[in-house]
Design a protein that fits this description.
The protein is of the alpha+beta class. It has two domains: 92 residues, RRM (RNA recognition motif) domain (Alpha-Beta Plaits, 2-Layer Sandwich), CATH 3.30.70.330; 242 residues, Sandwich (Jelly Rolls), CATH 2.60.120.590. Strands 9-19-16-23-14-11-10 form a seven-stranded antiparallel β-sheet. The chain starts with a strand and ends in a 19-residue tail after the last strand. It binds 2-oxoglutaric acid and fe (ii) ion. The site of 2-oxoglutaric acid has 8 residues, from strand 14 and strand 23. Fe (ii) ion binds next to loops. Keywords: RNA-binding. One of its GO terms (molecular function) is oxidoreductase activity. Belongs to the alkB family. This is Alkylated DNA repair protein ALKBH8-like isoform A.
Length: 342
């Protein structure tokens, strides 16, 4: 089972026993226990949960609505001395059904990219051997991991900043490590991928997902990265789902007005969905429409259903995502999803 999911109340003025609290969390050095020790003064707590992957937003869930009301009144907009003097932004939040979990059983999971039928999406099975997989895992395991709220990451080339969903192009961390050179060479000579020969991939994000942990729906920021995004899956399988929203929805992640939509993407206009199974050692390419116009995400499941077969997530999945940092504005054909056009 994934973590409980919360969203903005449907009606203004609707009370709830849960609070969405922004500006505190693990990314600013405050543990769930630190936060609980402040909020428990207003009533019995059910728990403190990460609201998203930012590490700066949490859900504080009370047993009683009155406790949430009292905490909101006392703490909203105030700087909180027990939490390092941080000024908390608080609103009500309601528990959502888990549409991602339920609906993923309804969307058929394709094994091949041609079955998914999204232009620009490619999948190559067995792109690397089991020995190469082992070597890549060993290489990253002897380097330091950065812990996010639910998964660990490593960045090479340029650091990816989750708060702005972008990279700092002025801060280059150096070349990509030599242990990925054979992979990069193979990508440039792989006949499945057109137009790749002249592209120098210069940013690598390594993600390590424990079982049951996925990734929220997102489009990699257009202005941050060029067209081709490669993701190599190692160690364990997962499914990746895709959503194409009718109206587009590029939103800056840092704007407070965007929070509800990010927290609860189901609130947005209608979307169509597809899914693909990503086995270990496969290489996925998102390009063109698949990269620019479809949200991709990994459901927070411990078990995936693929063609009626139950597939258990392994003790971890590690992915290597290779991208090319963009210089200048994005000029894609999908302005409704593009931050360069806002
Ligand atoms: O883990 C993956 O395969 C995808 C990662 C991803 O979408 C991202 O880092 O933007
Ligand atoms: Fe992504």
């Amino acid at each position: 089972m994934g973590l409980p999911r919360f969203g903005r109340p449907k009606n203004d003025g609707e009370l709830s026993s849960n609070l969405f609290v922004a500006n505190c969390g693990s990314a600013v050095g405050l543990s769930d226990d630190d936060i609980a020790s402040v909020f428990c003064k207003f009533g019995e707590l059910k728990g403190v949960y990460a609201a998203d992957e930012s590490g700066t937003r949490v859900i504080v869930a009370y047993v009683e609505e009155g406790s949430a009301q009292a905490a909101l009144k006392a703490l909203h907009g105030q700087s909180c001395p027990e939490l390092g003097g941080r000024s908390l932004h608080i609103r009500y939040s309601v528990l959502q059904p888990t549409p991602q979990d339920q609906a993923s059983d309804l969307v058929p999971v394709s094994i091949t990219a041609s079955d998914v039928s999204i232009p620009g999406l490619f999948l190559v099975h067995d792109f690397i051997s089991a020995k190469e997989e082992e070597e890549l895992l060993q290489a990253v395991d002897c380097r330091p991991w950065n812990s996010l709220s639910k998964r660990r990451v490593q960045h090479y080339g340029y650091e990816f900043r989750y708060d702005i969903r972008n990279v700092n192009t002025r801060h280059c961390l150096g070349e990509l490590p030599s242990f990925v050179s054979p992979i990069l060479d193979r990508i440039s000579s792989c006949p499945t991928f057109e137009n790749v020969k002249n592209i120098v991939l210069d940013q690598l994000t390594v993600n390590e997902y424990p079982p049951g942990v996925g990734l929220s729906p997102h489009i990699d920021t257009h202005s941050a990265f060029e067209d081709l995004i490669f993701s190599l899956s190692l160690s364990g399988p997962c499914i990746m789902e895709f959503r194409r929203y009718e109206n587009g929805d590029w939103l800056p992640r840092v704007a407070s007005s965007a929070v509800a939509k990010i927290e609860n993407p189901e609130d947005q206009s209608n979307f169509i969905r597809r899914a693909i199974y990503l086995p270990p050692r496969s290489l996925l390419l998102l390009s063109g429409e698949a990269r620019y116009a479809w949200h991709h995400y990994i459901p927070h499941h411990k078990i995936d259903k693929v063609n009626g077969k139950v597939i258990r997530r392994a003790s971890r999945r590690v992915s290597f995502t290779f991208r090319k940092v963009r210089e200048g504005l994005c000029k894609c054909e999908f302005p409704q999803y593009c931050d360069s056009r806002r």
